[in-house]
Amino acid sequence: MRIRKIGVVGAGTMGGAIAALAASAGVPVVLLDIPGEEDRNGPAQRGLERQLKARPAAFMDPDRARLIEIGNTEDDLARLAECDWVIEAIIEQLEPKRALYARLEEVLPETTIVTSNTSGIPMRELLEGRGERFRRRFLGTHFFNPPRYLHLLELIPTPDTDPAVLAAVEGFGSRILGKGTVLARDVPGFIGNRLGVYGMLQAIRLMEQFDLTIDEVDALTGPLIGRPRSATFRTADLSGLDVLRHVSTELSAATGEDFAMPGWVQALVDQGRLGEKTGIGFYRREGRDIFTLDWKTGEYRPRAELRLPEIGQIKDRPLAERLRAVLALPGKYGEFMRALFFTTAHYTLERAPDIAYDLVAVDRALEWGFGWDAGPFRQMDMVGLDTLRAGFAERGLAEPRLLQQAGTQGFYVRADGTPRYLDFDGSYQPVPEIPGTIALQPLKEAGQVLATSKDASLIDLGDGVVLLEFHTKMNAVGEGVLRMVDRALKLVEQDGYAGLVIGNEDPRAFSAGANLALLLSLAQEGAWDELELAVRQFQRATTSLRAAPFPVVVAAHGLTLGGGAEFLLHADHVQAAAELYTGLVEVGVGLIPAGGGTKELLFRFTRELAPYAEADPFEAVRRAFTLIGMAQTSGSALEARAMGFLRPGDRITMNRDRLIADAKAAVLSLAPDYVPPVPGTITALGRDALGNLRYAAWAMREAEQISDHDVAIGEALAYVLCGGDGPPRTVTEQDILDLEREAFLKLLGTRKTQERIAHMLKTGKPLRN
Question: What is the model's pTM?
Answer without folding.
Answer: 0.95
